[in-house]
Amino acid sequence: xxxxxxxxxxxxxxxxxxxxxxxxxxxxxxxxxxxxxxxxxxxxxxxxxxxxxxxxxxxxxxxxxxxxxxxxxxxxxxxxxxxxxxxxxxxxxxxxxxxxxxxxxxxxxxxxxxxxxxxxxxxxxxxxxxxxxxxxxxxxxxxxxxxxxxxxxxxxxxxxxxxxxxxxxxxxxxxxxxxxxxxxxxxxxxxxxxxxxxxxxxxxxxxxxxxxxxxxxxxxxxxxxxxxxxxxxxxxxxxxxxxxxxxxxxxxxxxxxxxxxxxxxxxxxxxxxxxxxxxxxxxxxxxxxxxxxxxxxxxxxxxxxxxxxxxxxxxxxxxxxxxxxxxxxxxxxxxxxxxxxxxxxxxxxxxxxxxxxxxxxxxxxxxxxxxxxxxxxxxxxxxxxxxxxxxxxxxxxxxxxxxxxxxxxxxxxxxxxxxxxxxxxxxxxxxxxxxxxxxxxxxxxxxxxxxxxxxxxxxxxxxxxxxxxxxxxxxxxxxxxxxxxxxxxxxxxxxxxxxxxxxxxxxxxxxxxxxxxxxxxxxxxxxxxxxxxxxxxxxxxxxxxxxxxxxxxxxxxxxxxxxxxxxxxxxxxxxxxxxxxxxxxxxxxxxxxxxxxxxxxxxxxxxxxxxxxxxxxxxxxxxxxxxxxxxxxxxxxxxxxxxxxxxxxxxxxxxxxxxxxxxxxxxxxxxxxxxxxxxxxxxxxxxxxxxxxxxxxxxxxxxxxxxxxxxxxxxxxxxxxx
Length: 722
What we know:
alpha+beta
């Protein structure tokens, strides 16, 4: 027996013919669509006939697919035949739609109980036009470019759909909206929680999954308490007095010969969510969250390319920034990108009025350091305010612990009693950092709570459990950054001194919301960095220099492990064998070293995740290429070259130590030889092909390293045996 929506109401939303028929019977519109489902060559002929009937361009997609798998746009028969082959590799049904590429895409999240009470929880608007999958698009909540009439027209249609389908629970409805007329089509209905539902829940503070579970059990909406305000019910529509921006994260640079074009099929591996009082503020925050090496809407990251503006890639936003800097008109940008002029104007504000700048961006303008800018800002009383996400735009008293920082305010929404323990999350999912670190962060929060400690979580990933507001006492949906010593020698064409910037007519008052801002406001008992993966480790020394209290392994020891030169030198000092190595000083000495020890050699940058820019060089040409790549990702830390051992066994050690004494450890054995990253390798635990003598040596080495680094907390090592 199932609870919630009946199979009659849920199956039509994933069966296209039934779904379209139901929507049309509700006097609502769907795009012209033809489904082909016969086997063999006949399906291609059906698809071609459908395209002729609908007229090119058309969209081809596989039925019952996730993330737009196998979909795309065709302008002629040849392109359609190619797309059809891709789609049919994933499904026996092929859907041909009339193309609405370039229209606006808008989503509504709606809930309904068994007693026909309906509310819309959130509406979201894609910055990118239709044609780019919503999972690949920048998304803004609430919508920014709809008129009041358009907003209510789509809201009414959404409620009509959920009632007509008989959905009890949550429903996601996606629209294509004509940018030049009051015309729309319903393009997708999901009678379930979806990726967009998770974003809507985090954007509004409305606990969609919790409410959907209650509704499935037959509880009426007015009887469900709003756990955010503590005083109202769940039968209300959230009001937002802030702007939320979601940006996807791609890791396409990890792969060779992979197209960087983005479109109707998803390629992103994660997403970030930023909150601000203005679009410019939230947009720049989100860009920094998406890539910690980016300082914001930077016009110097990419060259101008009209082709890249028209056919978007994962870096299109930076091409757009360059085009704005080069004085492209809003109309010209709209013609190329089909991004709404409102968003383009807001992006232009960032470049021309310098809105939403971080400390690092200001430092680049005046050729100074982020730390100096930060200190100057604090000396002049320019600090952020803590605001609540309360779902009711401060119209009702709220007890919410869901927080963000902004300079667009005049007072804090909360008081700061102190006594909390701060835990730093893992940030955006990427290749090499995914749900495993969030699992660690959640485990840490739960244990601290069990010990009676009040907790603060800092994270910005809407896909995580750690950003559920009931996991901790205070949740900051904020950036995890503090690049204190970074300088940038690019010429931004600015010739203002620091105080001129602060006193300008449009002051740069939207600075990076770093961990230290939260730390200074909350004055916690300490910060836990060791459960969030690489990102918290990268800011350990900067926090330490600002006298932040770091719990667990000291930042100096973290640096001793992350810094390849320091770590290799430590191994030599304590007598642990390692392949011959040398710190990179220049290309000539690197080539001489490799010639001396013999190729292949391993290039090892410091402070990197998932083996970024770590490569095995077999020739001097390889070495030169890989050293440049390693220097790019490890600008402020040394790169080490070591002899690469062929046909060696790789072994992983995961352990916990207290004051340098190992408390427990586990050994995993790689099936593949050394050279395959542990994230890509097949691991076996307990090890099956390691003799007792080798295991004893592994234990001795682990204890020696833990003692030398005075580890307190978890640590991981990779060893090779030959």
